[in-house]
Design brief:
single chain; alpha+beta; Immunoglobulin-like; five-stranded mixed beta sheet; Transglutaminase domain-containing protein; CAP/Cytokinesis_protein; Transglutaminase-like
Length: 325
């Protein structure tokens, strides 16, 4: 039943949200991990990590880096998910035991094949963290990754990630998204290591993730607020920006209406531009900057399409959905 609950269908990762923690260079921990040989078991890998790294933070990062670098995303399962099995149990204890067996099987399969979807990534990360003496939990929930996710009504659970405790503080980890991205146009997985999804700022992390379990929902707002928000890309997080206005990612506008935008930490208009559905630049009108907030307007033309996407320094920044009044 729990396998029913999790539909492994959104691997996310469109092409504008793919740079590695603001830099494509590996850090010192990653450089050590890159030299690791193949290990016969998760336990042997965990022992090596314990030997090479002493702090909880470094071990948690080493596990993340090893998985993001060494594993591959299972494209076949993503595109053709198997039919979900159902199980019947008389007691919760019976189900807990069965679930442990299923999870253990997934962990071993993921480690051996070096391939999985998000469930396998999250389970293996949790197991390796536990072997390294870390408290770690798998979290399931909704992910927001595509333009048509803005304002969508379809609810559900489509992704899995982790939260791990480091020196008393819980940090957020999405090793699946650190592994690469799915190129929708070419229907291929592009491996591209990204460190940004390890210990990400919760404010930004929860702009893309919404947990199923209320105990993890220290993100602001409810599910509707989450879905109605803008779609953010790497450039937004890189600039440590904020959307001051509009308050929603769904904007009501008719032909000829002026739409006002206010972005914090974007002071140079020449660094920011936006495109319509034909990838043509849209004119930015009446720009002004005050106290680190850039304010401007765009005149809506229905030929622009349903979405407006902003770019900063040639990187995806944020996208909004336009609906008629």
């Amino acid at each position: 039943m729990i396998l029913k609950k999790i539909a492994f269908i959104l691997f996310f990762l469109n092409t504008f949200f793919v740079s590695s923690g603001y830099s494509q260079k590996y850090n010192a921990i990653d450089s050590i991990i890159l030299k690791y040989p193949n290990f016969g078991s998760p336990e042997k890998l965990a022992q090596r990590i314990q030997k090479d790294f002493t702090s909880e933070y470094d071990r948690a990062r080493a596990i993340y880096s090893w998985m993001a670098i060494k594993l591959n995303y299972d494209l076949e399962t993503y595109l053709n998910p198997p039919k979900q099995k159902t199980y019947r149990f008389k007691t919760k204890a019976e189900w807990d035991k069965k679930k442990q067996l299923l999870d253990a099987k997934t962990i071993q399969k993921t480690f051996k094949s070096k391939e999985a979807v998000c469930e396998g990534f999250a389970l293996l990360y949790g197991y390796l963290a536990t072997l390294n003496g870390l408290k770690c939990q798998k979290v399931t929930g909704d992910s927001k990754t595509l333009l048509n996710d803005i304002g969508r009504k379809r609810l559900g659970s489509n992704h899995a990630w982790n939260t791990v405790q480091i020196e008393g503080k819980w940090i957020l980890v999405d090793v699946t998204w650190g592994n690469g991205f799915y190129d929708e146009k070419r229907k291929v997985i592009v491996k591209k290591f990204k460190s940004i999804y390890f210990d990400m700022n919760p404010e930004y992390f929860y702009a893309k993730h919404f947990p199923d379990n209320a105990m993890y929902k220290n993100n602001t707002g409810n599910k509707e607020t989450f879905l109605n928000g803008p779609l953010f890309y790497n450039g937004f997080f890189k600039a440590e920006s904020q959307v001051v206005f509009p308050f929603s990612g769904v904007i009501q506008a008719n032909d000829g209406d002026k739409m006002t935008f206010k972005f914090k930490n974007i002071s140079r208009l020449e660094d920011l531009y936006c495109l319509n559905k034909k990838e043509e630049r849209i004119e930015i009108e009446s720009p002004k900057e005050e106290n680190g907030i850039l304010e401007f307007q765009i005149t809506y033309d229905k030929r622009m399409g349903r979405y407006i996407t902003f770019y900063l320094f040639e990187e995806g920044f944020a996208a909004f959905k336009i609906v008629p009044k």
